[in-house]
Design goal:
The complex is a heterodimer.
Chain A (H helix, E strand, L loop, with lengths): L1 H34 L9 H11 L10 H20 L15 H21 L3 H32 L4 H10 L6 H17 L18 H4 L5 H26 L11 H27 L9 H25 L1
Helix pairs in contact in A: 1-3, 1-9, 1-10, 2-9, 3-4, 3-9, 4-5, 5-6, 5-7, 5-11, 7-9, 7-11, 9-10
Chain B lengths: L2 H8 L1 E2 L3 E2 L3 E3 L2 H12 L4 E7 L3 E7 L6 E7 L4 E3 L9 H11 L2 E3 L43 E5 L11 E7 L2 E8 L7 H5 L4 H8 L7 H16 L5 H29 L3 H22 L8 E2 L2 E2 L5 H27 L1 H7 L7 H7 L3 H5 L31 H25 L16 E8 L4 E8 L5 E7 L6 H8 L7 H8 L4 H4 L1
Parallel strand pairs in B: 2-14, 3-6, 7-8
Antiparallel strand pairs in B: 1-3, 4-5, 5-6, 9-10, 10-11, 12-13, 14-15, 15-16
Classes of the chains: A mainly alpha, B alpha+beta.
């Protein structure tokens, strides 16, 4: 019975992230539009966009290889699995025991690898520019991310996300400097990974400044829909990750009753709302940085994460 | 005697050209003028062709002296000015495309406006041929290791005018930019020939829609100079009012758009609202948002009612209340300043050489502003002074716009206060012999030049309109060198050159 319950929670979680991802993107766009005194598209517009793209014919460049056609599905699958590993409203996920934070980083890394390959596959100059910029950003964001993971693992004694979340709720986690530093580093990585301002601009029409958009310029129809869905999932993943690691309150524990699950869902929705609003607010109050400032930005994230880990060691040896 | 005076002295004066002199010279005199221009003793204002000759408009060093030099081309050839003075190269290529006159000794013999798709060659020349050239365009060769090319346009991801940009880059650093324009060629020169004055005025107002008032005013002033009409003072004041409103709307739009290209959408949103207010006030007062066809030869087409003036006063109050906060936002946002300061620096010497007008020239220390000419527009009475900055970067171009917005606000107020009562248009007399006129009007982008000849039948025999962008586009190629590819949109928007006005 317990296995069936766990399975239900796990599959429920997978569907929840897939269902909510477009809504979060729509919410961020809506808030941004309102802050800019525009009315903005309806909240549900991203769902309609995805449906429209799914129905449309996919136009593929003549010289595209099988990789170009396969990449969207690989990217989507990897991102979806990664998103399903993050506890959203409940811990104790079934998959969680076979996969931890490092797997999430690896899955996202694989998705990016295929996206960069697909960007270069057709051989247009924009795809190449986008891929080279993306890889430059990733090569700096990934180490920072790994450092954040290690910091959390040191605190909780595990890289299992469910364990970390439970630890954060139960153990007397004092206000630690390392936690604060890790949070800032994770937010910086999340901004870069999700192609948000100040690293990239998801709404730009300027071909020459694009990073993520430049790689997917040649995609259309269902391929584009799947890639867009993967980007939305990724945004949701990072917001959920930050919420689960640093604000785990309200999350339902393994084996809790339906009431706890309902509370968990509610708390999760509130966290997503706050995360989306803060993201929109941050995005309108800052300009995009020059491409060559990005290494400095992500270098700072790496240093912060490293500092967080070092502080962790220091306090341990003294405590 | 000044260099220009010297050239004028040696040429044969042509009667019936107003308000500036026109002289006919021989090939030696033409080359001498080219040398003087190349040495920086004169500024090239424009270079244009006709079926049987070429003309060049020159300004003296302080731009107080303006003259037109003409060379009859009996053999269909003329000595190239571009071989000595690069700003003339594209103008010469266009003359060859349209009229088939060969610039001798030209460095660049490729076509410019003609993409081989008109179905005929040299459409306005003496020897038109029906064969489209269809030849491929040779972009400049790229030599060297680790360089790659990025072709951009003419179809862009955003809804903007078409133009092709070919970048040669080393990683992210731009080594060279080559532009290819002419995609919005409308055949304005051809349409003008034989058009009556009313139709020609409408055509002139459509050369570049965002500067329609400046174009229409330049055209009207050239007609009035040619025919020798005195325009009622009220019409002149209303023209100045419309030109300043046009400048205000475009500058506000540009300031927002430049910031938006650095992904700072907040400025775009707020500047867009202010721009919209200007357009709505213009629509209420003059019955057209862009004030198209409101300036006609002889005067203006609509009078300003007192309600209209009240609308503008309310507009001034609103902009004055809200604009300073936006300027402060621009100046205080570090991430934005980081993008604009030091980006796309224009060398003041280049700005001088190319005679760059508008914010492009004035941000790089070239103080020329056609509003300070002793022109029929009432700027002298309004106490006008041009804005100049010396840094030449994107930030300086934004600041010239900000300062000009503030100046325009003051000018509009004085124009509303001082506009004299009376007629708004003078009747156009009929002509018996060909007349010629030239006018230079400061639009928001820079000085718009209009030159025309009215035939004995009272119709346009030849009309040449020169957009300020002719001398700004090549500078954009120069400023982007050494910058990174991703900064091009920002540089491009800070120049905001016209495609339509350039492609004619």
């Amino acid at each position: 019975m317990a296995v069936i319950g766990d399975l239900l929670v796990q599959f429920g979680q997978m569907l929840v992230v897939l269902g909510l991802a477009p809504l979060l993107t729509g919410f961020v766009r809506k808030v941004k539009a309102r802050l800019l005194r525009r009315r903005g598209p309806p909240l549900l517009q991203p769902y309609r966009d995805l449906l429209r793209l799914l129905r449309k014919e996919a136009v593929v460049a003549e010289n595209a290889s099988w990789l170009f056609r396969a990449a969207p599905y690989l990217i989507f699958a990897a991102t979806w699995v990664a998103a399903a590993l993050v506890p959203t409203f409940a811990t104790g996920l079934l998959f969680s025991w076979s996969a931890d934070l490092i797997v999430i980083v690896a899955l996202l890394g694989s998705a990016r690898f295929f996206l960069a390959l697909a960007g270069m596959d057709v051989g247009t100059s924009f795809g190449g520019i986008g891929a080279s910029r993306e890889v430059m950003i990733a090569s700096l964001a990934e180490p920072a991310m790994i450092m954040v993971v290690f910091t959390l693992a040191l605190i909780a004694g595990s890289t299992q996300l469910s364990t970390v979340a439970s630890h954060m709720i139960h153990a007397e986690v004092r206000l630690r400097v390392s936690l604060g530093l890790a949070l800032i580093a994770l937010i910086m990585v999340a901004l870069a990974e999700n192609a948000r301002i100040p690293v990239d601009n998801p709404a730009t029409h300027l071909e020459l400044t694009m990073v993520h958009e430049a790689m997917v310029l040649e995609y259309s129809g269902r391929h584009l829909a799947v890639i867009e869905a993967a980007s939305m999932l990724k945004l949701l993943l990072y917001v959920s990750l930050i919420a689960a690691m640093f604000l785990p309150w309200g999350i339902a524990e393994a084996g809790a009753g339906p009431a706890a699950y309902a509370g968990g869902v509610l708390a999760y929705a509130v966290k997503l709302g706050i995360g989306g609003f803060l993201l929109a607010l941050f995005e309108i109050s800052i300009a995009k940085m020059r491409v060559f400032r990005v290494p400095g930005f992500l270098g700072a994230a790496l240093m912060l994460a490293l500092l967080a880990m070092l502080l962790m060691f220091m306090t341990r040896s003294f405590g | 005697m000044s260099a220009l005076g010297d050239i004028l002295h040696r040429g044969r004066h042509v009667a019936g050209h107003h308000p500036y002199p026109r002289v006919e010279v021989d090939a030696a005199g033409w080359e001498d003028a080219a040398f003087q221009t190349a040495d920086g003793r004169c500024t090239l204002l424009s270079l244009w062709g006709e079926v049987d000759g070429v003309h060049m408009a020159l300004a003296g060093p302080d731009a107080m002296e303006i003259a037109v030099i003409s060379l009859p081309c009996a053999g269909g050839r003329f000595p190239s000015v571009g071989q000595h003075h690069p700003p003339a190269i594209r103008l010469e290529r266009s003359i060859r495309d349209l009229y088939g006159l060969e610039p001798q000794g030209a460095i660049d013999e490729r076509p410019w406006l003609d993409h081989g798709r008109w179905g005929r060659r040299r459409p306005l020349g003496a020897a038109t041929s029906d064969a489209g050239s269809g030849e491929a365009y040779d972009f400049l060769p790229v030599e060297g290791d680790s360089l790659h090319q990025i072709p951009v346009g003419p179809v862009h991801a955003g809804i903007i005018e078409p133009g092709h940009f070919r970048f040669t880059a080393n990683g992210e650093t731009v080594v060279r930019l080559e532009q290819r324009l002419g995609y919005v060629h409308k055949g304005l020169d051809g349409l003008m020939q034989g058009a009556d004055l009313g139709r020609a005025a409408k055509l002139a107002g459509r050369a570049s829609g965002d500067s329609t008032v400046a174009y229409a005013t330049a055209f009207a002033q050239a007609v009035e100079a040619a025919l020798g009409i005195a325009v009622p003072p009220r019409a002149q004041w209303l023209r100045a009012l419309m030109i300043e409103l046009e400048r205000l709307a475009n500058h506000l739009g540009d300031i927002g758009a430049i910031c938006n290209d650095a992904s700072f959408a907040l400025m775009l949103a707020h500047c867009g609202i202010l721009r919209e207010r200007v357009l709505r006030a213009a629509a209420a007062a003059f019955d057209h948002r862009l004030m198209m066809d409101r300036v006609i030869p002889g005067g203006v087409a609509v009078d300003l009612a007192s309600e209209g003036a009240a609308q503008f006063r309310a507009l001034l109050a609103e902009i004055r209340a809200r604009f300073p906060a936006l300027v402060e936002l621009y100046d205080d946002t570090t991430s934005l300043q980081d993008r604009t300061v030091g980006t796309g620096r224009l060398d003041p010497a280049l700005a001088r050489q190319f005679g760059a007008g508008g914010f492009v020239g004035r941000a790089a220390g070239r103080g020329f502003d056609a509003r300070s000419l002793a022109a029929p527009l009432p700027y002298a009475e309004l106490g006008f002074k041009p804005v100049t900055r010396s840094e030449g970067d994107v930030n300086a171009r934004v600041w010239v716009r900000i300062d000009e917005v503030n100046h325009s606000l003051a000018l509009i107020e004085r124009l509303l206060d001082g506009v004299p009562m009376g007629e708004i248009a003078a009747a156009l007399p009929s002509v018996a012999e060909p007349r010629e006129g030239l006018a230079l009007v400061e639009g928001f982008r820079g000085d718009v030049l209009a030159w025309l000849r009215i035939g004995a039948d009272g119709r346009i025999a030849r009309c040449h309109l020169r957009d300020p962008s002719w001398f700004q586009w090549p500078l954009l190629e120069a400023v982007i060198e050494g910058n990174i590819v991703a900064d091009f949109p920002l540089c491009n928007k800070s120049f905001n050159c016209s495609y339509s006005g350039h492609d004619l």
